Amino acid sequence: MLSEAYCIKCGKVLPGKIFIKNNAYCEACIPVVKAYSISHDIDSYSKVLDMRVCDLECKHIMQVDDSCKDIYIDSIKAGFLNIQWGCFRENVSKETENATIEKMIKDGFLKPIRITVTDNHVWADNTHTAISYVRRYGDFVTVKDIPFYICDLTTNPPTIAAEAANIWFDENCISGAIRNAMRLEYLEKNGGRKLNWTIFDLEKQLF
User: Fold this and answer.
1) 3-state secondary structure of 71
2) DSSP string over 108-138
3) Cβ atoms of 76 and 187 closer than 8 Å
4) How far is CA 88 from CA 2, 24, 137, in A?
């Protein structure tokens, strides 16, 4: 468990607790979401909808090995210290993360996952939930087959796109979702994701 980290935007050293509380930002860098748009025109995102969930870009690795060494180094240099899944929790292992995923499946957990669209990638922004859908429905399950909402950071202002039933949160939740999604944008801008690392790649580390 890490005791300190770095602001994903400016690189300032932060206590681990502040990093977690502010979702990777220092107090000065927490984004102010002044505007966003909501769209139910999901057909305009057909390329995203047709993507397999296992092919979506993944935020985390389980452990550092030859398959992800460069991904890990780039992420750390970019200030994304939580590249290693659960690094701010205690006693995290493949067993604990698999248990969380299997409980989601057993409980029939059907929360929409956030699909974050940046200039360079399409991200699965809720890792446990994304993997739970792959295990439940198989490797060929696509985004359109599961509950989802899209946070499109390529538009100005950002766009939240989904069927009406999947946008159930209030304005504060929407702003929070956009702030969290923006971490991935800063990760890319800081050179932290030069190579691809997908949900499928993480899945291979869990077995």
Assistant:
1) helix
2) T--PPEEEEE-SS-EEES-HHHHHHHHHHH-
3) no
4) 6, 11, 30
